[in-house]
């Protein structure tokens, strides 16, 4: 393990690793079907470099589908959750037995400590926008086999589908100076498509059923919350809780979501 620049890269999410682990949603099954279809890569047996793997949301699902995953992240706390969960895995997300041990690498995705041509897939699940847009893709191309593919995906609240969610996002926009999301008119997905001549894109709608407290844990795990003072973050979470409880006294949310999936070569 090294300190310095890596520590700086990992700092943002390391401070919210527990909230991230507990509060962020997984990706829907349909995304994995689309990923295989668009990339032409069968996940079973595929070697995948999961860059910005964090606590392992995508890593776990890929492994459950038979992929060998090299999980890369500069966040020591985030990776520690990924490793400890992997140690307790028994294939619970799939029908198969326990997946092979995960390789967790504390590193910067802009300088992958991996040999050329080792991977069938390089994945960035909600992470590519944290990397250098040019250097990261050059690195991904280097570690890919010739017929491999680069995958970006983002799990997003689909605020246009529910007034209460639009209001929730609007409260965030009002309270958080660095907010960048659907309440901002010019908001758009990270421009990973621009890095490729051949790119397949897909929007995958799904619904997340979640309790209000878990939903608020997810809120706490965003980088813009980690950047706020604890008191300001608490006030914002409290305000959101009051409004959500008013709208859903039973405490359960049905959140319209959509995944933006981009597969490039
Ligand atoms: C929003 S989290 C996504 C985690 C996970 N992939 C998921 O789907 O939930 C972004 C992750 O990117 C990582 N990250 C930030 N800068 C990075 C870099 N230069 N190289 C690799 N990962 C980076 C962060 O440490 C964090 O774990």
From TrEMBL:
Residues 49-151 form the Methyltransferase type domain. This is Class I SAM-dependent methyltransferase. It holds the Pfam family Methyltransf_11. The keyword Ribosomal protein does not apply. It comes from Nonomuraea zeae. One of its GO terms (biological process) is methylation. Belongs to the methyltransferase superfamily. Keywords: Methyltransferase, Transferase. PANTHER family: METHYLTRANSF_11 DOMAIN-CONTAINING PROTEIN (PTHR44942), METHYLTRANSFERASE TYPE 11 DOMAIN-CONTAINING PROTEIN (PTHR44942:SF4).
